[in-house]
Design a protein that fits this description.
heterodimer, A: Ubiquitin-like (UB roll), de novo design (two linked rop proteins), four-stranded mixed sheet, disordered C terminus, B: Arc Repressor Mutant, subunit A, 2 domains, binds flavin mononucleotide, binds FE2/S2 (inorganic) cluster, metal-binding (chain B), 2 iron, 2 sulfur cluster binding (chain B), iron (chain B), NuoE-like (chain B)
Chain lengths: 449, 157
């Protein structure tokens, strides 16, 4: 049950008015900032290292390595940029966190900036999130008023300014180098990363060292400092310090055909079955589970035989899928896989920024073939063509958006995606052309484009 | 065509960044809000001039982002999510239902310019699907009944 899962981020999620600083302060609010300001840079980063925290935005990169990459004693400008773009279909946890617990994010930003001695923090929020942005702006204003932001924070001599920056509708802007382009007033296109990728730490926004981290990653700095990294790492899977591990808790968005969809905090390693059937209350209308998508739309789907997989980075990786951003989408027996994939391919084709050929052309090709199959004009060779195109996008696009489009169909390295598990459904549609005519797949509509 | 008030707002935005150019996205937001929620070319040109950028550059940026409207939209801009969660819990049926009630298709505006109906990609409310966004308001856990109420309510505004 959800109540048995330790709640490090959602501890005070249900407290009325917790988005207000006075209530927040009564519930350990800004204790972590007070504590962090008595610690030196090394000590904070060490706690984050001990916690085993990995980026919660999708890639799962160890957070302390990024933070350590900022040149020490760097007195020129450098930045923390918080990735609140949340565009991965299925993912709604950052919005929930910002709406319900805005001070948790602001507090996490202060700690993170102190750890890297950055005096400026930008929170890049997707354009649709006007309400969460208001919540964050209110929290920032309140934090300034109480001396947690601005000049000489709590008498420590540390100055920090924090700004909200709104995106304007582009999934690609969640990719960290595209996010930086967008923040600088450009089209949200990815940039070449230094050889030390995935680290923009040397030359990020405005050619300055920059850390880009997900909302949840940054918020997690608060419980880590409050309880200590080692204590935080007591739950989860793998042995801390001995190879890759999945320590701590993770916010997940549970959606689709479950009785109790929602955003939940779970311990990493909780079996998928427990998440769907206990936390989620089982399949809606007691239908049969057909498959689930473990980590957001770019992670390959998995059939029910994977229900006992622990929900962690390593175990999900071994299935040929990924934990991704923590968006567990559940589908019952009524769902048509080719229809779902058609919609998804339209999404990726629409969101491809157009910079590189494999992604720009490839995603549109995937759309055309899917549309043809859905309209009843599929050809037997289409299925292998879909796989071939996917495999030619995968690993060849400028940024991971191309991979994100190819993986659902053709899988990750293990090669197991929608076509592997549900090839017969594609074959049947191609054979008798049924079903597809029921619904035309309208692409995204926009005013004046 | 931009007013003094808009320029004043843009000034406060510029102060947030190390370069003027970085204020472009927020400045376009301000310009759009001041122009019935869309961006005429002249508005983009004004923003360009004020920030010291080429008009073509600003248009290039504006067209990259779906939320800058390049043509007029209705007073109430309905954007219904139809991505892979909303889709399987009835988004397409809802879009058809709304379209039927308003007499418009996807991407169209009613003749009285009160409503524009659009689809949206994952609004990040998947745990409360299906959902739609109207201006800055989210409506979640939608049903046809709920949508009818919302439409009736908006029609009065
Ligand atoms: C196409 C694309 C979209 C992405 N969208 C997001 C997003 O919305 N939010 C996010 O935090 N990371 C997103 N990422 C991952 C980021 O590039 C980056 O890895 C992450 O923000 C780093 O933060 P973390 O280390 O805290 O996870 C996306 C990546 C790609 C390739
Ligand atoms: S799919 Fe509709 S909100 Fe995510």
């Amino acid at each position: 049950m959800p109540s048995e899962q330790p709640q490090y981020l959602y501890k005070y999620r249900q407290v009325p008015g917790i988005d207000d600083i006075d209530v927040y302060l009564k519930h350990e609010g800004y204790n972590a900032v007070r504590k962090a300001l008595t610690m030196d840079q090394e000590a904070i980063i060490n706690e984050v290292k001990l916690s085993g925290l990995r980026g919660r935005g999708g890639a799962g990169f160890p957070t302390f390595i990024k933070w350590n990459g900022i040149p020490k004693n760097w007195d020129k400008p450098h930045y923390l940029v918080v990735n609140a773009d949340e565009g991965e279909p299925g993912t709604a946890k950052d919005r929930d966190l910002m709406n319900a617990l805005p001070h948790l994010l602001v507090e996490g930003c202060i700690i993170s900036c102190w750890a890297i001695r950055s005096k400026a923090c930008y929170i890049y929020i997707r354009g649709e999130y006007i309400q969460p942005a208001r919540q964050i702006q209110k929290a920032i204003d309140q934090a300034y008023a109480k001396g947690f932001l601005g000049k000489n924070i709590l008498g420590s001599g540390f100055d920090l300014d924090m700004y909200v920056h709104m995106g304007a509708g582009a999934y690609e802007c969640g990719e960290e180098s595209a996010l930086m382009s967008s923040l600088m007033g450009e089209r949200g296109m990815p940039r070449h990363k230094p050889p030390s990728a995935p680290l923009p730490v040397i030359s990020g926004v405005w050619d300055s060292p920059t850390i880009v981290n997900n909302v949840e990653t940054i918020a997690t700095a608060v419980p880590i400092i409050n309880m200590g990294g080692a204590e935080y790492a007591k739950v989860g899977t793998g042995t801390p310090g001995a190879g890759p591990a999945s320590r701590g808790t993770k916010l997940i968005t549970l959606s689709g055909h479950v009785k109790k969809p929602g955003n939940y905090e779970i311990v990493l390693g909780t079996p998928v079955r427990e998440i769907i059937y206990e936390i989620g209350g089982g399949i809606k209308n007691d239908k049969k589970l057909k498959f689930f998508i473990p980590g957001g739309s770019s992670t390959p789907l998995l059939p029910p035989e994977f229900l006992d997989t622990p929900y962690d980075y390593e175990a999900l990786g071994k299935t040929g899928s990924l934990l991704g951003s923590g968006a567990l989408i559940v589908y019952d027996e009524t769902v048509s896989v080719p229809a779902l994939m058609t919609r998804l391919m339209h999404f990726y084709a629409h969101e491809s920024c157009g910079k590189c050929t494999p992604c720009r052309e490839g995603t549109n090709w995937l759309v055309k073939i899917h549309d043809r199959i859905m309209a009843g004009g599929g050809r037997p060779e289409d299925i292998d063509l879909l796989l071939d195109i996917s495999n030619n996008i995968f690993g060849r696009s400028f940024c991971a958006l191309g991979d994100a489009a190819a993986m659902p169909l053709a899988g990750f390295f293990a090669g197991k995606g929608a076509i592997y598990y549900f090839r017969e459904e594609y074959e049947e549609l191609i054979r008798n052309g049924a079903g597809g005519k029921k619904r035309a797949f309208a692409p995204l509509q926009m005013a004046g484009v | 065509m931009l007013t003094e008030e808009v320029y004043k707002k843009i000034d406060t935005l510029i102060a947030k960044y190390p370069t003027k150019k970085a204020a472009l996205l927020p400045a376009l937001w301000v310009a759009q809000a001041a122009n019935d929620n869309w961006l005429p070319r002249e508005a983009m040109a004004d923003v360009a001039k004020y920030l010291g950028l080429a008009p073509a550059y600003v248009e290039g940026v504006a067209t990259f982002y779906t939320m800058y409207n390049k043509a007029p939209v209705g007073r109430h801009h309905l954007e219904v999510c139809h991505n892979i969660v909303c889709m399987v819990v009835g988004a397409d049926e809802l879009i058809d239902h709304i379209g039927g009630k308003l007499g418009v298709g996807r991407g169209e505006t009613t003749p009285d310019r009160k409503f524009t109906l659009n689809t949206a990609e994952c609004l990040g409310a998947c745990a409360n699907a299906p959902c739609m966004m109207v201006g800055d308001t989210y409506y979640e856990d939608l049903t046809t009944e709920k949508v009818d109420e919302i439409l009736a309510d908006l029609a009065r505004k």
